[in-house]
Amino acid sequence: MAGLVLVVVFAAMVIITIALGVRLVPQGSKFVVQRLGKYLKTLNPGLNIIIPYIDTVAYKVSTKDQIIDTSRQECISLDNAVLQVNAVAFINVISPEKAVYGIENYHLAIQNLVQTTLRSIIGEMKLDDALSSRDQIKAKLKQGISDDLADWGITLRGVEIQDINPSDTMQQAMEAQAAAERQRRATVTRAEGDKEAAILEADGRLAAAERDAKAKEVQAEASKKALQLVLESAGTGHEEIAIGYLLGESYIKAIQQSATSQNAKTILLPADLQASIRGLIGGLQAK
């Protein structure tokens, strides 16, 4: 019986020893092994053998890409505007021993490093630049934390700016400013429209006056030529007859215009119209 117990105990110790000495590391992970409390080696994925009871797996580190999400924080820009910013970093552990021995908690360290670097970057930029330069902020952030992560055996795959927005009070102020700017542009546009309309109206009046003057000039020229023709027809010494003829013609035209006017409902013709014209011409002849 005692022999059987010893066999069982021995078998159990063998099984435990094998279990402690054989390590199967899954793909996407690495194990950090210590010997008597001191770093010994890093186990890669696959079957690994260590010395039981002396060597121990102290840390199991994932070598997959990891996401470090930072909480939203307030940053003050160069022109004293308050912005709410948060970012996410994608990292990969390439040296597990550096990651576990170089920093106490590399997840928390990277979160704080991203936040402090973001505050520094935003503090060097004005509000408008910060809101419109997301790619520039990403590049500066990646450049600012890559060296520190390399010291910890971590590589930075990339960073993304999730949100970069003005604070609530700043957003209200910006909306009021935008509304005032739109109102100013509308006022300027309306004033420019009124100005152009006034200029066009003055140009129209000027053109009409010029055309009216031209028309009067042409009319005067035509009257001059007509008078010359009449005087030539009347002959030398009969200028009064020519003038009387022109006056009679103008008199008749004036009566015709009055008769054809839309507002002329009643036309009063002198009873001695023909006699008046003959008298006008005859009186001139008598002279």
List keywords for this structure.
alpha+beta, 4-stranded antiparallel sheet, 287 residues, 8 helices, 3-stranded antiparallel sheet, rod-shaped
Architecture overview:
The structure is a single chain. By secondary structure, this protein is an alpha+beta fold. It is 60% helix and 22% strand. The chain is built from 8 helices and 9 strands. It has helices spanning 2-21, 96-102, 106-123, 127-132, 134-151, 168-234, 239-260, 273-286; strands at residues 22-25, 29-35, 38-43, 46-49, 55-62, 66-69, 73-76, 82-93, 154-166. Strands 6, 7, 8 and 9 form a 4-stranded antiparallel sheet that branches. A 3-stranded antiparallel sheet has the order 3-2-5, covered by helices on one side. A hairpin with a 5-residue loop joins strand 7 and strand 8 (82-93).
Task: Write a compact overview of the structure shown.
By secondary structure, this protein is of the alpha+beta class.
Strand and helix layout:
Layout: H1 2-21, E1 22-25, E2 29-35, E3 38-43, E4 46-49, E5 55-62, E6 66-69, E7 73-76, E8 82-93, H2 96-102, H3 106-123, H4 127-132, H5 134-151, E9 154-166, H6 168-234, H7 239-260, H8 273-286
Antiparallel strand pairs: 1-4, 2-3, 2-5, 6-8, 7-8, 8-9
Q: How much helicity do the residues have? A: 55-70%
| Helix/strand order | HEEEEEEEEHHHHEHHH
Output the radius of gyration: 54 Å
Question: Number of DSSP helices?
Answer: 8
